[in-house]
Specification:
heterodimer; A: 485 residues; mainly alpha; two-stranded antiparallel ribbon; 19 helices; globular; B: 516 residues; two-stranded antiparallel sheet; 75% helix
Chain lengths: 485, 516
């Protein structure tokens, strides 16, 4: 009768994006369950509507900060651009998966639902202000992805990639959890608020240090930084191209932002040196290893490893300054559209039945599909960092952010890595334009509205962010300003 | 009009490229004429610049500054001075001629060819007018893409190797320059508290010698790869030989000048102390390039490769002249730049003419061409004489001034460089003798037709200004004189030297009547 039950402080408004996505995912599942194959398009439509409304909801939380679930979730306008990014990536991926002719037996509703749940996990990751909730987000993001990577049930490559991803991912989640547990043991809390500046208290520093190391390893794995990158090429190659596009962009974005927030909480300068080594290793090795690849998806996997290295540059700086975080998010935006566009075209033109995408299949693409060749070239130039495309402005801003730390070896490594990278990006363009087509190449001349739409959106964003980045930068700077707790 | 003319000039070729892009591929003649039309429009617009040039002012003219990414201090700032004026004129003059000369040379995928031609013109003009470092960098990098396609798609046998080498060499230098640019902006912000990439702002800053040395090295590397300075020249022979004729003309005519322009505009004035430190080394490499280029050119069996190595040699002269830091040297360097653009452009077009007919460029395949194609031979020999430095043509005035200037700054190097002039005569005249004179050894040469109309029109258009520069260079040097003085002032490090320079400049500038 008395107040025996204390209701926790749940503020549901902050959760609207997740709620909407979950509802949409469930509806899509139901539509597919009752409609079967014929209901593929409606199921996708439901999911797309869910994504759109979730993005809009993210912006309407108000201009304050909302603490939900007893201050373990923080929602506000600073999260909105990121949530919009995740939803856009999922939106484009869903559009692409509609026509994915390699799709084996999964109903579109199932694919959509799994994708949407993964996006929920990502949103949790960036909203988390507590390590347990963060872990929840990581798992919620990763487990659906393990399923998505195995979408082509009959392909050996796909199964192999998915198993590798699953095993290594589970292992890294274990590391993360163990680290969180030890961290709780040494500090007595899992909340970011309390962890803020904890390193000042040197009670049990060695254990604290080990805990941090484990947590970082978990993050580095998700972000595919060297030397935790081994799973990426196989997983990316095995998954269907649209899913690879999603994995290489949204997952990396979520992991990077979560890592940034965690490093900001720690405020421990001890980690600068190891981070620097990791960045240099990632940038150089990622680019070097991509040189030898003949499979497009593996090559882009290594390229995304290298891009993770570039993205980690601002992490070396003072993350209290909103600019650093904003510039990192800007690069994520540009990189997302470039990568999804590239994978869209690769999935459409170069993938064969197993799911591999050997580069020879692009020979003479300019003759068969001139628009696709042009678009792919623009995306390749963008990833290489050539103006006036999004990759260049992103890289310029990253160098700007990295400059604040004055680490010349890092910047030199990034420059050299970019130079190496140019070669394999250009090689793709050479194959499209400068090599005569093989006799057996693509036999179907099918056109696809969905792929065209996705590519057009990505192209438009690439050009826009390259020529007129100011609006987005302003939005992101505004958002980053709120990132303090 | 004044403020917008430069932007109009730069982006009109882009509009032309878009127009060609939107027209269907089968209307081939449309593409040719649209390209010719737009490049000619750009040339006419650039004439306005010369007409309305204010000869006395030393600063930048036709300037415009519009905000772009203001929070980082990246503005769309453009303007030209005496140096960029003539380089822009060279570009807009060469492009219609290049377009005209490609009418029959490029048959397949002509649409893409003309699109890239126009895109590269936009890139080059943009780089010459930029007064903001990031804007300059954007155009500098952007130029690489159409050139990459021009060589890679319409080039010769080893085109893919050549184009990748060209792209990657240049890109490495450029990336280091980007790091340096961002570093400088950061230093500037530390001093003044604001972000700025404006050239004018950076000129006003004083940088420490340590900072200058690093920055200069990065900038110089990027520019000297482009020049190309020995030993960074290895991309040039491949790129030139494998490129289509139009590509070679643009590459040799304008792109190489980007390197020396970058030196004169950015690397030298911004870092005068570092310049003093690095100058002996670079001058030494320049002279090495002069002699090495000449010696290697002598043994080439392929005419185009011979001309490519001669470019290495000629541009070594330009760098030497620039580093001399006196009026003669700098004037000579810029005259040589413009003249070299014309004469190498002419030589490559001439080689392209016989390549189109016989599909070989080997000297051994020719002989006695003067009997078969007299008109062609005449023009070729005029271009050769210009390359050698015969007085009356443009090669002489450039080389002479450079040697004069270099002798005052580095006497031993100047003496060595002078031998390069002799070597130049050797390889060119020997090649001419083997190709044009003597008996007609090869059967196939007997039936060769002389120049067709579009060929001799484009060639005469290029060769005529060579006489103008050679006989009356004052027209060109007058407009450059204020910029030359400004550069000398900016790179001077000691007061005493400065006074001496000004006094001698009064005597030696090509304006005084007594010297003529």
């Amino acid at each position: 009768m008395s107040s025996a039950i204390i209701l926790p402080n749940i503020v549901l408004e902050g959760l609207w994006p997740i709620i909407l996505l979950s509802i949409a995912a469930s509806l899509a599942l139901l539509v597919s369950a009752f409609g079967g194959r014929k209901a593929d398009l409606p199921a996708t439509g439901v999911a797309l509507v869910g994504l759109a409304t979730a993005s809009i909801a993210a912006f309407t939380v108000g201009d304050g900060k909302l603490n939900s679930f007893q201050s373990t979730l923080l929602s506000g306008p600073f999260n909105a651009p990121l949530i919009a990014l995740f939803c856009s990536a999922a939106f484009l991926t869903l559009l692409l998966s509609v026509r994915d002719r390699m799709k084996a037996d999964a109903l579109q509703g199932e694919t959509a639902a799994i994708l949407l749940f993964s996006v929920c996990g990502m949103i949790l990751m960036v909203q988390a202000t507590d390590l347990i909730v963060l872990f929840l987000g990581v798992e919620l993001m990763s487990i659906p992805l393990y399923c998505l990577a195995a979408l082509r049930k009959r392909s050996k490559l796909s199964n192999e990639g998915a198993i590798k991803y699953f095993l290594l991912g589970a292992f890294s989640s274990a590391l993360l959890l163990y680290g969180i547990a030890i961290l709780y043991g040494t500090t007595g809390t899992t909340s970011y608020d309390s962890l803020l500046g904890f390193s000042g208290q040197r009670a049990n520093y060695r254990l604290y240090f080990v805990a941090n190391m484990l947590v970082f390893s978990g993050f580095f794995f998700k972000a595919s930084l060297v030397p935790f990158h081994m799973w990426a090429p196989d997983a990316y190659q095995g998954a269907p191209a649209p899913i690879t596009g999603f994995m290489s962009t949204a997952v990396k974005a979520a992991a990077m932002i979560a890592l940034a927030v965690f490093i900001r909480t720690l405020q421990d300068p001890y980690w600068n040196f190891p981070m620097a080594l990791i960045i240099i290793g990632t940038v150089i090795f990622g680019n070097l290893l991509a040189l030898k690849q003949t499979d497009l998806k593996r090559m882009l996997a290594y390229s995304s490893i290298a891009h993770a290295g570039y993205l980690a540059l601002p992490l070396m700086g003072n993350l209290q300054e909103p600019d650093n975080l904003a510039l990192m998010m800007f690069y994520l935006f540009g990189y997302t559209f470039l990568n999804i566009g590239a994978f869209a075209i690769i999935g459409f033109c170069a993938e064969n039945e197993d799911g591999a995408a050997p580069q020879e299949r692009l020979k003479g693409l300019y003759q068969r599909r001139p628009m696709a060749a042009l678009a792919l070239s623009i995306f390749m130039f963008g990833l290489a960092g050539i103006p006036p495309l999004a990759g260049f402005t992103g890289k310029l801003f990253l160098f700007n952010a990295g400059m604040r730390v004055f680490t010349w070896p890092l910047l030199a490594a990034a420059a050299i890595g970019s130079a190496i990278g140019v070669y394999y990006y250009l090689r793709v363009v050479v194959t499209c334009y400068m090599e005569p087509p093989d006799e057996e190449g693509e036999t179907t001349g099918e056109r696809s509205l969905a792929v065209g739409l996705v590519v057009t959106i990505c192209l438009a964003m690439t050009l826009l962010l390259g020529i007129y980045p100011t609006p987005l930068v302003a939005v992101l700077q505004n958002a980053a300003r709120f990132f303090s707790f | 009009m004044d403020a917008t003319i430069l932007s109009l000039l730069t982006f009109i070729p882009l509009v032309g490229a878009l127009l060609i892009f939107l027209t269907p591929s089968d209307l081939e003649s449309t593409h040719k004429y649209v390209a010719l039309a737009f490049t000619s429009i750009a040339f006419v617009l650039s004439l306005h610049l010369v007409q309305h040039w204010d000869g006395g002012a030393g600063g930048f003219q036709f300037t415009l500054s519009a905000p772009w990414i203001s929070n980082l201090g990246i503005h769309y700032s453009v303007g030209i001075d005496g140096f960029s004026l003539w380089l822009i004129m060279l570009t807009t003059f060469l492009m219609p001629i290049v377009a005209l000369s490609s009418f029959t040379a490029v048959e397949k995928r002509a649409k893409g060819f003309y699109i890239h031609l126009l895109l590269i013109e936009t890139g080059m003009l943009g780089a010459f007018i930029s007064l903001n470092m990031i804007l300059f960098y954007v155009f500098w990098e952007f130029m690489l893409i159409p050139m990459y396609f021009l060589i890679g798609v319409w080039g010769g046998q080893r085109r893919i190797y050549a184009t990748l080498k060209f792209f990657i060499f240049t890109m490495i230098g450029s990336l280091l320059m980007l790091v340096a640019i961002v570093a400088m902006a950061w230093f500037y912000r530390q001093e003044t508290g604001i972000w700025s990439f404006e050239y004018a702002d950076w000129l006003a800053m004083t940088w420490t010698v340590g900072q200058q040395k690093w920055m200069f090295s990065a900038f110089a590397l990027a520019f000297l790869v482009k020049v190309p300075l020995f030993p960074f020249h290895t991309w040039l022979p491949d790129a030139h030989v494998e490129a289509p004729t139009a590509g070679s003309v643009i590459l040799a005519g304008v792109l190489l000048k980007m390197g020396t322009y970058g030196l004169a505009r950015f690397a030298m004035p911004l870092f005068p102390d570092a310049l003093q430190w690095a100058s002996p080394l670079i001058a030494g490499l320049a002279v090495a390039g002069i002699i090495y280029g000449a010696l290697v050119a002598m043994v080439q069996p392929d005419i185009k490769k011979l001309v490519a190595y001669s470019s290495v040699s000629h541009l070594g002269f330009c760098v030497l002249g620039l580093l001399a830091l006196n009026p003669q040297g700098i004037q000579g360097a810029f005259l040589q730049m413009i003249g070299h653009g014309l004469l190498t452009g002419a030589l490559f077009m001439l080689v392209g003419v016989i390549y189109e007919r016989r599909h070989t460029r080997l000297i051994s395949e020719y002989g006695g061409l003067a009997k078969v194609m007299p008109f062609y031979s005449t023009l070729f020999i005029i271009a050769t004489l210009s390359s050698i430095g015969l007085p009356g043509l443009n090669g002489f005035i450039g080389e002479f001034l450079i040697l004069m200037g270099a002798f005052r700054a580095f006497p031993p190097l100047a003496i060595l460089a002078a031998t390069g002039v002799i070597l130049g005569a050797v390889y060119m005249l020997w090649m001419v003798q083997r190709v044009f004179f003597g008996p007609v050894k090869v059967e196939a040469n007997l039936g060769l037709k002389d120049l067709r109309r579009h060929e001799w029109i484009s060639l005469l258009l290029i060769i005529a200004p060579m006489f103008w520069i050679g006989l009356y260079p004052k027209y060109f040097t007058d407009k450059m004189a204020p910029a030359v003085q400004k550069l000398i002032r900016q790179t001077a490090v000691a007061e005493a030297e400065l006074l001496d320079e000004e006094a001698t400049a009064q005597r030696w500038t090509l304006g005084t009547e007594e010297d003529r």
